């Protein structure tokens, strides 16, 4: 296997097939919640008042994407899969939390999904935090009280606020050493020599309960806390590396050849090395369970989505199958499209789904895999192997491009999901690893340049129909690859092209609802009458 650095060597498969979350958006709902929850943990005492200042995509779509509710829910301490997120405003009033929002508009120097969180505690203490939602539910804290930092929660993270005093850092590291806590990374940020400073320790394990009180008693330490990212699996075994790790298609194929495994087999082995066999198996069982529910329950019992622009459409496709499927999509693809559309309806109603790799594209992978698995009579192990394969492809895309619509357009969301699903279908049908990545490359090429233009800032139109098109791209790409039709451009280069095209897209076509279908007269009229911003 090529000895190249793995840039996502500690990323869990369930950060690609995940998080399990309340919709409608992984970046604007789950990622926003995580930003706010981590921010609240940096303030001593209960948050009494908070002001959220939203930038770029957040500023334009925060109501339709449920970002406002998610931010408040994060401050209240809710998890990403807590269905009470929809009622966050009521919960805040009951808790006595005063909250407000300000849309700051566009600034090219600021990350697309950025929120500034200004908090005041019951005791009058104040803390200002900048959070960035990176797509697929991932987040980063980039500023605390005006000091630039870099906190992602990828490791067990100890945060210490202190005065920049001689010997202070030595005292902290000595205490952690005495507690047998191994430090993976340590960074100190300061305003000036002798001024306010923050030290961030990323460790291989969480310190025991006695450590934080001892740190807080050190002279010149103002505050210390452990940062926990809700729903994150990476911290289960941070810093672990194994021979199975990879971050591009070439490394992935080399690992498959070296070990005689499919892509799904390599990814399963990799996850076991990161989080342990028991946790890896349990996490996959939960993903499969939620996927089965999200792809079927909205068909049987449709719910009104957040904005009301979709709802009941998955059932219509299912009911029309007998008439149309034979000469058009065929029964299996019709089932896959029905399932994919159902997921978007559940997500838009703020129900629990699996981001795969995002909430806006969450229907493609489960729709394809579960429909084909049922048609083939595949075992649960076969289904899981296909999902492991999808996660491997998604992780490669995330490493070298992105999966966030606000950063790369809908090609980064539905395009990535179609690539993941195409590879999964090949694996489910017994294809080779090379054929799986060929199918992924074809799917990316089919959807290259797809823009993100959510009507009304809602994850409803055209998102639901684009998930259906993602299914079609995955089906056709998988069949072409299994038939021996190879793409001219290999997988790694196709991913690189996706990244280049994403960077070239103007901001109005990257999840801001300021271009494309979102600004057509009919869309604007429909938006004016929807319930999403009420």
**Helix share, percent:** 40-55%
Average pLDDT value? 93
Main β-sheet description = 6 strands, mixed
What overall form do the CA principal axes indicate? globular
Share of β-strand residues: 15-25%
Amino- and carboxy-terminal Cα gap: 54 Å
Going across the major beta sheet, what is the strand order?
3-2-4-5-6-7
Count of runs of 4 or more consecutive helical residues: 20
The gyration radius over C-alpha positions equals 23 Å
| Overall number of strands | 12
Low-confidence blocks of residues: 1-6
SSE-based structural type: alpha+beta
Describe, in plain words, how this protein is organized in 3D.
The protein is of the alpha+beta class. Helix content is 46%, strand content 16%. The chain is built from 20 helices and 12 strands. The strands form 3 sheets. Strands 3-2-4-5-6-7 form a 6-stranded mixed sheet. It has a 4-stranded antiparallel sheet with strand order 9-10-8-11. A two-stranded antiparallel ribbon has the order 1-12. A hairpin with a 2-residue loop joins β6 (138-144) and β7. α12 runs antiparallel to α18. It is globular, with a radius of gyration of 23 Å. The model is unreliable at 1-6 (pLDDT under 50).
């Amino acid at each position: 296997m090529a000895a190249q650095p793995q840039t996502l060597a500690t990323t869990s498969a369930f950060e690609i097939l995940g998080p399990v979350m309340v919709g409608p958006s992984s970046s604007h709902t789950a990622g926003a919640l995580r930003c706010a929850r981590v921010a609240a943990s940096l303030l001593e005492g209960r948050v009494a008042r908070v002001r959220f200042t939203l930038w770029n995509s957040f500023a334009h779509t925060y109501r339709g994407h449920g970002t406002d509710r998610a931010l408040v829910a994060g401050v209240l301490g809710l998890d990403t899969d807590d269905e009470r997120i929809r009622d966050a405003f009521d919960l805040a009033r009951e808790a006595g939390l005063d909250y407000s929002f300000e849309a700051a508009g566009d600034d090219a120097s600021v990350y697309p999904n950025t929120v500034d969180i200004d908090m005041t505690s019951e005791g009058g203490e104040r803390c200002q935090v900048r959070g960035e939602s990176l797509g697929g539910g991932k987040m980063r804290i980039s500023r605390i009280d005006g000091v630039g930092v870099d906190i992602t929660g990828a490791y067990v993270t100890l945060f210490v606020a202190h005065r920049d005093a001689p010997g202070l850092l030595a005292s902290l590291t000595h205490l952690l050493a005495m507690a047998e806590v191994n430090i993976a990374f340590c960074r100190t940020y300061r305003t000036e020599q002798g001024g306010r400073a923050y030290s961030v320790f990323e460790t291989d394990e969480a310190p025991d309960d006695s450590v934080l009180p001892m740190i807080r008693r050190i002279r010149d330490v103002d505050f210390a806390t452990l940062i926990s990212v809700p729903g994150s699996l990476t911290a289960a075994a941070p810093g672990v590396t194994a021979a199975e790790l990879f971050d591009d298609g070439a490394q992935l194929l080399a690992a498959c050849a070296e070990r005689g495994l499919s892509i799904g087999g390599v990814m399963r082995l990799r996850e076991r090395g990161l989080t342990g066999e028991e946790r890896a198996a349990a996490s996959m069982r939960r993903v499969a369970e939620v996927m089965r529910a999200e792809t079927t329950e909205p068909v049987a019992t449709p719910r009104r989505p957040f904005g009301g622009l979709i709802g009941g459409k998955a059932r219509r496709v299912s009911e029309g199958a007998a008439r149309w499927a034979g000469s058009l999509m065929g029964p299996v693809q019709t089932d896959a499209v029905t399932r994919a559309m159902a997921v978007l309806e559940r997500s838009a109603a703020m129900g629990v789904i699996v981001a795969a790799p995002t909430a806006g594209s969450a229907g493609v992978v489960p729709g394809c895999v579960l429909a084909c698995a049922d048609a083939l009579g595949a075992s649960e192990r076969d289904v899981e192997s296909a999902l492991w394969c999808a996660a491997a492809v998604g992780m490669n895309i995330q490493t070298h491009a992105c999966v966030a619509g606000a950063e790369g357009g809908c090609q980064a969301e539905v395009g990535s999901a179609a690539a993941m699903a195409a590879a999964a279908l090949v694996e489910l049908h017994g294809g080779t690893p090379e054929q799986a990545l060929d199918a992924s490359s074809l799917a990316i090429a089919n959807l290259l340049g797809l823009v993100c233009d959510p009507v009304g800032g809602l994850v409803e139109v055209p998102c639901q129909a684009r998930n259906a098109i993602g299914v079609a791209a995955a089906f056709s790409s998988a069949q072409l690859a299994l038939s021996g039709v190879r793409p001219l451009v290999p997988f790694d280069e196709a991913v690189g092209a996706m990244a280049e095209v994403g960077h070239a897209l103007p901001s109005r076509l990257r999840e801001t609802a300021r271009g494309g279908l979102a600004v057509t007269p009919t869309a604007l009229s429909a938006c004016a009458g929807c319930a999403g911003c009420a």
